[in-house]
Amino acid sequence: MYGPKRDLLLLDNNILASPDYEVIINEILDAGFEKGATFAGKQRRLDFNQGMDARLLTPTKMKLLAKTAIKPLRLAFDQSRMRKSYERAVRLACKYGVNRHSTYVLFNYNDTPEDFYRRLWIEPFALFGTACGLG
What we know:
The chain is an alpha/beta fold. Helix content is about 35%, strand content about 15%.
């Protein structure tokens, strides 16, 4: 309705839980937001502007998502018990060539200041760089 745009920003933090995930991602690809796509000479970007639930990221979902112009991949790290899922999701993203990354770290829901601090010290950028062979 408003014509083509360079970037696509979606406010959906639960895309990985959608039963229509594959349909939605394919629609995004059909709209021209595939990896490496440009608009007016600049790289296109797809951004799910919320932290995705790392526990729901499967190899199949990541393989399809990696075909898009996602930049950055935003993952949620809301509780310490999610650490293994979070680290697995980071490694999975790297495996499929998604190396722009951001982490949402929730505080003050069912955690303590100490728990929050421990999650911050996991150093997601160091983990991501190591997993992607960047550091």
